[in-house]
Please model this.
Amino acid sequence: MSFSNKLENTYLNILRYVILIVATVSLVAVVIAGSMAINAAFSSPPKEPEKIKFEDRANDLKKGFTIENFKKDSPTKTEVKPQAPDKASEEKQKDDSFRTSLKDSISKIADNFIIYEREMRKAEIDKGKLENFIANYPLNSGLRREKQIITFYLDTLASLTGDLASHSKEIAKLPEEKRINSDRLLEWHLQQVNRVVETVDEARAQSDIEFRKQQEAYAGKKASTYTYISAAGGAFGIFLIIIMLFIMVKIERNLRPLQQMADSGKNASA
Model:
């Protein structure tokens, strides 16, 4: 066998292995791209998260509304910026049970303040005027006009003033400057409620942001389906071309010994 024939056989062997490697890589690419396309095509859209309820999140923060915490904070008067009320919240409440609950809470708060001030000042306060003041104070101070927030405000204020009334005799024995001022207590309580509202708003906003991110990721995944399909199709096309080339090389390698035998026979007869 001549040197040129040996060299050609060597190149054909090398080409055969290269073709096998490329064909294998192409087939793997087809499987991977096809799997990703199927996964993207049949992926489920993100479920909208359950809306965070104010009362559920706020109930965990009720424990902070105590006389002891009021004393620790030593609040100073701060300006409260009124918030623009929602149109829906401006509508008159028609729920009789809700109205009854509000009236009961306001009456309880007024009674607690009357008990406390009676011990502090030895004077009586008009309950009707006090109830009217208690009912309007949070709204005039900028508290958002939502049913759950108003209910939370009155419930925690009723608990706080109940604690105040139960300790009124003990507080009355303290010097004037160490006694709890009712106005400052109202201001502090309103600040705490506004902080709770902000906490719930932030939790809702974060939940909405995460949901939007999930939606964007889902949309991107759906859009990539066509990319994966195209990649799988291209890889499969390359695989077919490589296989055809491999068959041609295989035929060439099988026919080469016959051609060499024929050439040898011609040389011998000559």
